[in-house]
Design goal:
Blueprint lengths: L2 E6 L4 H12 L6 E8 L2 E8 L2 H8 L9 E7 L14 E2 L5 E9 L2 H10 L11 H9 L5 H11 L2 E9 L4 E6 L4 E4 L4 E4 L11 E4 L4 E5 L4 E4 L5 E2 L4 E2 L15 H7 L1 H9 L3 E2 L2 E2 L8 H5 L3 E6 L1 H18 L3 E5 H4 L10 E7 L5 H12 L3 E6 L5 H5 L2 E4 L12 H20 L5 H12 L1 H9 L2 H11 L4 E6 L2 H17 L2 E6 L16 E6 L5 H13 L3 E7 L3 H6 L2 E5 L7 H19 L18
Parallel strand pairs: 18-19, 18-20, 20-21, 21-22, 23-24, 23-25, 25-26, 26-27
Antiparallel strand pairs: 1-4, 1-10, 2-3, 2-4, 5-6, 6-7, 7-8, 8-12, 9-10, 9-11, 11-15, 12-13, 13-14, 16-17
Helix pairs in contact: 4-5, 7-13, 7-15, 9-13, 9-17, 13-14, 15-20, 16-20, 17-20
The structure holds 5-amino-5-deoxy-1-O-phosphono-D-mannitol (M6R).
Length: 606
């Protein structure tokens, strides 16, 4: 969703702001703009559409002079995407320029109030109230105006504020904001990817804090204006990791990176033949105290949770439910101190997931998170955190984010089963052995690339594709169908194969494409029967099965055979051809793969 950057130093600000905005493009946006201060005047350039339009309008920033400024990519919430609604927004006296990520929930009331005191509005955005409030309180020192304004706002707001007296502020309430410490220059941004070309030394602001940046100093304050001492963290990601590296799309690059991402996630957590999850910070006694697990997340992260649920229940025999966060948060969840809430999130900034954690925490649940972004809101909010080490994920469609989440859930299940004494040594060792082989098996699944591309070219013209499977295969179906629909805009839906007869089979007619996952061997015969049933009604079946499954080869119209491993660990390899299938189908349809329409990478508003 919206991206924010800010810069102050002795170099020209606009090119730096534009470069930062480009690195935030992946978050999803529909307009962009910059505000730069020069000799007491703030110039604003903003436009609907792509950052490249902004670059053209400003000759890559060269036309906008000044060494201090803010930039923004907007993902429309209040008001259509157009030039006027694009950020930055200026106060009517030209003193303040504001960029904003989030939603100001009481904006209508504030707008009425400001209008009745004679203030004129130009845009339909919620953000513009901030610029006018700053002007309203602007007779005071700029810091006081910022504090008084922030105190009037309700909702989620990450703000960048540029004042025409040369002061620059960054304010955080319920959204991502990171401060970057340079040499003789300082920055802020929604995301470290916008900063890593300049600095790896960062400060993570907490909710309710704000910062003033000068070229030589960053001062962080709490909401009362008292200075706060913040630790400086070092970012481990490098610039290359956030670039395409010769691939046509980030999504393809990230698919290809999975063997490395899984190795980085799994390997350091296996020591002397044991899974070590000390970072979790849960004692054996606390683990034994858990009698219920609730997994919450959104989108693909919830499907990783679905895989985790099957594995945890089978190995640990602890009742485990998965509920999407947007439902859980409003459902009065039945949790208590014996419940372990596991939140799963790549970005660590998903608004619904944050709200669901807060809700369960309030009701006494012990909370943990599986997160990719260090220092993110979710990582800081929960009692216990385990990081996936996937590296930066830029494509909107998650790939390595998802598989590394599944890997952590698998490891957690094995670890917990061991702590609870519910797994014998032989099974433990066998699972551990297979876990260590995952990166190489994923590489073998990736090697199916050319074959999957060929298949995608046979299926890309269909307007609806169904996915069926049982047990863990069904969990993978949900993720496979989401991958396809979000980037190719083809209707794709996942059904438990056993449910076909209860309705869905009515949709099957001659030529209906069905992706049938038949990797879960314990129910293989059942899946073969389901495939027969749909074939009898004319379906065209693309089956995904395990290497050596001859019956599938003879039954399906097309097939993909993936490497074998322990049945509980198969979903990681199984999803690879489905990611590639979605990618090549979307490509054949000419879709904007890395930035699908209407979608944002990080969903920081409800
Ligand atoms: O950052 P998160 O993992 O919390 O994001 C959750 C979902 O928004 C995300 O998985 C979304 O469904 C992806 N676009 C799927 O590819």
């Amino acid at each position: 969703m919206c991206g924010i950057v800010g810069f102050t130093g002795s170099r020209q600000a606009a090119p730096i702001l534009l470069e930062g905005l480009k690195r935030l493009e992946y978050r999803g946006y529909d307009s962009a703009g910059v505000a730069v201060l020069d000799s007491g005047d703030i110039s604003v350039v903003k436009t609907r559409g792509m950052i490249k339009n902004l670059c053209e309008m400003t000759h890559d920033g060269a036309d906008v002079k000044g060494c201090i400024g803010v930039g923004h990519t907007r993902w429309a919430t209040h008001g259509v995407p157009n030039d006027v609604n694009a950020h930055p927004h200026l106060s009517n006296n030209g003193r303040f320029a504001v960029v904003h990520n989030g939603i100001i929930e009481n904006y209508a009331q504030l707008r009425e109030e400001l209008i009745s005191s004679g203030i004129k509005f130009k845009s339909d955005t919620d953000t513009e109230v901030v610029a006018h409030l700053l002007e309203y309180y602007g007779d005071e020192d700029a810091k006081v105006a910022v504090m008084k304004t922030a105190a009037r706002l309700k909702g989620s707001y990450v703000l960048g504020v540029l004042c025409n007296d040369g002061r620059l502020f960054a304010i955080r309430e319920s959204g991502p904001l990171i401060l970057g410490i340079g040499v003789g220059e300082n920055y802020f941004a929604s995301d470290v990817t916008a900063l890593i070309a300049h600095t790896k030394n960062v400060i993570y602001l907490d909710d309710g804090e704000f910062a003033e940046l000068t070229p030589d100093k960053i001062t962080v304050y709490d909401c009362t204006g008292s200075p706060v001492t913040k630790p400086v963290s070092r970012v481990v990601w490098d610039v290359e990791a956030a670039e395409k590296g010769g691939y046509e799309h980030f999504m393809l690059k990230e698919i290809m990176e999975q063997p490395r991402a899984l190795k980085a996630t799994i390997e350091p957590r296996i020591k002397d033949g044991r899974i070590v999850l000390e970072e979790l910070g849960l004692t054996d006694e606390e683990l034994r105290d858990v009698n219920k697990i609730v997994i919450t997340a959104c989108g693909s992260a919830s499907y990783a949770g679905q895989v985790g649920r099957y594995v945890i229940e089978e190995l640990c025999r602890i009742p485990t439910q998965v509920e999407v966060a947007s439902e859980l948060r409003y459902r009065g969840p039945i949790v208590d101190s014996h419940t372990l809430l596991i939140a799963v999130s790549q970005s660590g900034e998903t608004a619904d997931t944050i709200a669901a954690i807060r809700e369960c925490k309030e009701k006494g649940a012990r909370t943990m998170a599986i997160v990719n972004v260090v220092g993110s809101t979710i990582a800081k909010l929960v009692d216990h955190v385990v990081y996936t080490w996937a590296g930066p994920e830029v494509a909107v469609a998650t790939t390595k984010g998802y598989t590394t989440q599944v890997a952590i859930l698998d490891m957690l299940a094995i670890y917990l089963a061991d702590k609870l004494g519910r797994i014998d040594k032989e099974r433990y060792d066998q699972l551990l052995g297979d876990l260590q082989e995952i990166p190489s098996k994923i590489q073998r699944a990736i090697d199916l690339n050319t074959h999957v591309q060929y298949l995608a070219e046979r299926y890309y013209q269909n307007r609806a594709i169904y996915f069926i499977g049982r047990n863990l295969d069904y969990a993978s179906c949900m993720e496979g169908s989401l991958k396809l629909k979000e980037i190719s805009y083809i209707f794709a839906e996942a059904y438990p194969a056993g449910e076909l007869k209860h309705g869905t089979i009515a949709l099957i007619e001659s030529g209906s494409p069905v992706v049938a996952l038949a990797c879960y061997e314990r129910l293989f015969d059942k899946m073969v029967s389901n495939i027969e049933e749909i074939k009898a009604r004319g379906a065209k079946v693309l089956a995904v099965a395990l290497e050596g499954d001859k019956r599938i080869v003879s039954q399906a119209d097309d097939f993909i055979l993936i490497p074998r491993s322990d049945p509980l660990l198969v979903p990681i390899a199984e999803i690879i051809p489905l990611q590639l299938f979605a990618y090549y189908v979307a490509k054949a349809n000419g879709c904007d793969i890395d930035k699908p329409k209407n979608l944002a990478k990080s969903v920081t508003v409800e």
